[in-house]
Every structure is written in C-alpha cells, then in structure tokens.
Design a protein that fits this description.
282 residues; mainly beta; 2 domains; Toastrack_DUF4097; DUF4097 family beta strand repeat-containing protein
Amino acid sequence: MRRRTLLRSTGLAGAAGLVGLAGCTAPGTSPEETTSTDLDVPDGAAVRVRNTNGSVVVDTHDGDGVVLTVTKRAPTSAGRFDEVTVETGSDSASDGEEGDGAAYLVETVYGTDEARRTVSVGLDLAVPAGTRVAETTTANGRVTVGNTAGDLTVESANGAIEVRNVDGFVTVTAANGSVDVSGVAGVDGIETSNGSIDAEVPAIRRDTTVRTSNGNVDVALGADLDAELLATTELGSIDVDDLALDPGERPARRVEGRLGDGGNRLRIRTGNGGIDLVALEE
C-alpha cells in the first residue's frame, strides 16, 4: 500500500520548515511511503539538497513552484518512519556562498541511529526551468540532476552520479560509482574512486582534474577549450580522435599537448582503465 499525501511545511525555529512523514505498511511487502509538499523557495535562491541514505533526483517540470516528493523505505517495518524528517527552509549558514541571493536547504534528518541504519529516504525535487541548484549530496545513493542553472556541486559516497544540461560549472565527486556529465557550461572537477567517467568538458576556468582510480574515462573536449592537457593511465591505453593531439607510440599511456591558447591545466587520469579523448560535437 502506498499513500501519497500533500503536506505543508510547519514552522521551525527561524525560517526553516519541517516535512513530517507518517508510516504505512502492507502485509507481506516492504513498507514504503510517498509524500509531496510545495516548497516556498524565494525567487533567486540557490537550492541545496542534502540526503544521507537514499537517492536524490532534481529536474524541471512545467509548474511554477518547487515540489518535493519524499519516499521512505524500510526492509521490514515502518515503525521508525516517524524518526526521520526532511527539513526545508532558508539556510543562513550558506547565504553569501552563491554570489547573490539566499540559499534554500532541503535536508534529511535522522532522529535516531536505528532509523539511520534501517530507513532510506528518496528525495525528488521538481523545479521550474532556470531554478538555481547549488548542491546535491547523499552519503549512500544515486544522484541525478538535470536542467538547472548556476554552478553545482554533486557528491555521493556510494552511488552513481548523472548531471545533464546544467547552465553552470560543475564539481562532481563519487567515492564508489560511475559519473556521467553532459550539456554543462563547464567543469571544475570530476572524481570517482571506483567507476567509469563519461564527461563533456566544454570549458574550464582553473586547473581541473578528471580522474578515477578504477575505470575507463571518456572525455569529449570543447572546440573552444583553452587548456594544457595531460592524460595518463597506469594500466590501459589512450585513444585520441578528431583532436590536434599526438598519442605517440601505441599503446599510449601518456598524452599531453596544448588545446586552443593553453592556460589552465586539465589533467585526465585513470589508474586501471583506458582513456578516450574526442572532440565535443556542437
């Protein structure tokens, strides 16, 4: 049995709100509950989403407001659902970090250690086109972000990350999971310890690293990209296609050269895997 309830944020100390979720269980099934609430996000505020144990999805919709859908799951019992809440509201600690405008925080809070061990929370945020999203993080789960504005930081300690169509520079960190980045304005850094990387890099604005310890790395480089490139692999080879770079002897394990007018360093690295460097199709 699933129950979908439209909730309103209740007042907390300061400007924050709280979305409280009740439990619902059907015999013979893993308990799951889904609730939705409309969020009162100030115009121009940069949204930050912080989860602990569960996925995060942020994408646009046709509506004018921001809608948060929260899905709680547990393996056997919904008895601890009430010990997990999702706090929402203005984030004074992050104000000023976004350059202009306030920050708005959506954060999962566990009331007990037992709830943290047994209850997962999926956060799905539907936002209007052009909404600024500054951060999406989770300790354990997949993160997907699409069609947002502003510079973005994405992190998952254990789970894959997909970022697409972001009008800003992105920083992506995954400890254990693949990373897929496309349609962004630029890249400030991409890293995973165990997983492949498939990324479009149209621009960089500082020394930038794209690397994994274990996995293949496929990078499409923008035609207008200015960078000093160094690509290396310890166990694997490097292939170059439609770029003014000479891989030298094959199998190549190190490729370096100047892209455009040069400038900032772009390091692309894998410890165990191959690297494919291609020109980004406009």
